[in-house]
Amino acid sequence: MDPTRQRTAAPVVSRRRSAAVPYACAALNVLASLAMACWLRGGLEVAGDPAARIVYIQAHLFEWRIGWGIWVLAAFSLVAFFAWWGARVKSHDWSVAALAVAVTGLGFDWAAEAVYIGWFPDRMLTLGRAAALLTGAAGNGLYSVAGMVLLWKSPMIKGVVRWWGWAVWTTGLCLAVATAQGNAWAMSALTAVLMVLFCPWVAVAGRQLR
Hints:
Elements: H1 3-19, H2 21-40, H3 50-59, H4 61-86, H5 92-119, H6 124-152, H7 159-181, H8 184-209
Helix pairs in contact: 2-4, 2-8, 4-5, 4-6, 5-6, 6-7, 7-8
């Protein structure tokens, strides 16, 4: 093959792979949302009675662990999206700061998911609240701050998509507050609203950012 063509083809392939980042993030978060609805909800704080939650997790342990494994991948895809997004923001310092905030959120998120996968249901009564705070309050809160910073510094995201983005990250902050307060009804409702808003927004905003 002509070396010149090889050099030309490589950047094209790289750009195509890069362009897939928002869609991969959207797809993984859709899968994670389905896992939450189908496999995980019965073992979470929103389900109420701790004894019933333990019984549920014991009866669905394989699905429980697979579901949280999907959330591990979804969280990583979100931070990858932030990195992809930040590379298109002119203010390098702000994009790096936003990514640092998001990576910190990922650390809290993965810590919680490790607890859910490895220590539930045996340690649910002692670690359940801490895990919920790590992922729902710290993780979501930091992701939302990172998203707000990047959106603020992204004038290329315009019109309805921009307002839609503010709705996404504001809902994420509200979810963090609801989780910190232990408001199960608000946690459930805000999680549903957040994922309905976020998953399509990532794909649409990704088109504008390209």
